Amino acid sequence: MAKHATPLLDQLESGPWPSFVSDIKQEAEVRAKNEKGVEYQIPVDVCDDLLGVLELSFKHGRTHWKHGGIVGVFGYGGGVIGRYCDQPEMFPGVAHFHTIRISQPAGKYYNTKFLNQLCDLWDFRGSGLTNMHGSTGDVVLIGTQTPQLEEIFYELTHNMGQDLGGSGSNLRTPSDCIGSSRCEYACYDTQNLCHTLTMEYQDELHRPAFPYKFKFKFDGCPNGCVASIARSDMSFIGTWRDDIRVDQEAVAGYVGGELVPNGGAHASRDWGAFDIQEEIIDLCPTGCMRYEGGKLEINNRECTRCMHCINAMPRALRIGLDRGCSILVGAKAPILDGAQMGSLLVPFVKVEEPYDEIKEVIEAIWDWWMEEAKNRERLGELIKRQGFQKMLKACNIEPVIQHVQEPRHNPYIFWNEDEVEGGWDRDVNEFRKHHLR
Amino acid sequence: MEFDEAKKMIVEKLEKKAKTKTKFYFNDLAKILDMKPRLAKKLVTKMVEEGVLEYWSSGSTSMYGLKGAGKQAGAEGE
After folding, report:
1. Which of A126, A224, A258, A364 has the fewest Cβ atoms within 10 Å of its own Cβ atom?
2. Fold of the domain spanning A175-240+324-417
């Protein structure tokens, strides 16, 4: 018998999709039975009370959580998000219900030993409820009480080799795709760059001094499996400078039906024979391909790296060999001014250890943003407010054609005096002789 | 700027404002010290380590306050 009746939540279980309500009920039951004999450090009925307070919120149409506070571990300004219930007598199990963010390993590779340790720790000192993973990428442990925080932190850092993630006005936990560990499209080693920058910028990750949050994300290729272009203040997307490598024999293989397009994906129904003209050439967004006389040609100069042809015919077309990444800045979710996609800042940079060129750009951006941004202003908003040109100056980057988002959109060009030969010093008195006020 | 001098400036200013405001953005502190943010951060972090200041976080934004000033953990949001 459940501790609280939850008719409104029960309704959420009726759909065809997996339900978080069922998951929480399951965990509540496991804790009540306690077959493993865990010495729970927070109330055993935490999950029941969580369901109770959520039901009450649905009933009242408003939240019963208060969030924020001075909770955390010594020396860290992030990683723990304080949460309290405003009905602690009715729901003592969730009187404190803090969230802990844990930095995920690069590429999110775990071994089962680590996951078992993590779950055992969280059963013992927390609610047992996890979110694998939060949208920033961290492992999110949902629900514990203040006295448990230091204990959990000690166990994580001393016995599990893992650290807290970022929250608040910090660098948020950098996140990446699996990169060259398992993907032939990766144009650089995302895991190495992600891990290296995570270690390099530990101070920024744990001690908040930014105007607001700041996110790095690393995509190995323009397929963008971590969607860095839409979700990170600074996005690193793999690309290449030379030509797409074409294997004409394999192209013929696809055309002849010996090779299955899209690596066999979408194979659950019969789409008919592969038609290279219709499915590849006509879909190229820049029209830079043609297939004539059994030969596929690409005008690489016009290619915008949409990845469609490479995804559809991976045996025939492969990424170029002169690889690196593009750096984009200013993406964010829609709290103010609507969602923004990243704007291209560095069209191409080689991604080579020790990544000094990349660090230089990062630090120039931070210096500008930390000095110029208003409180709670994201980088993308500052770029909009002050202009892309200001940012280029701050980063000491020369404007290039790739920075122009919409050519001919605005016919006016504003020059600074030092950009015009001879400047525009003039004798006002001489001017006034011929032009009255 | 010496650490002790910076500490004095911050504590004096924050105490003066204590009646109306107890939580401050990092930029407010950098302005009090009249320093570039990255340099101010080193001093402010040391003040947190010494227990003069403490962090406050809403989860999305972080602020700083004199230790013990203003609302404390259990009373957040009241």
Report:
1. A258
2. Sulfite Reductase Hemoprotein; domain 1 (3.30.413)
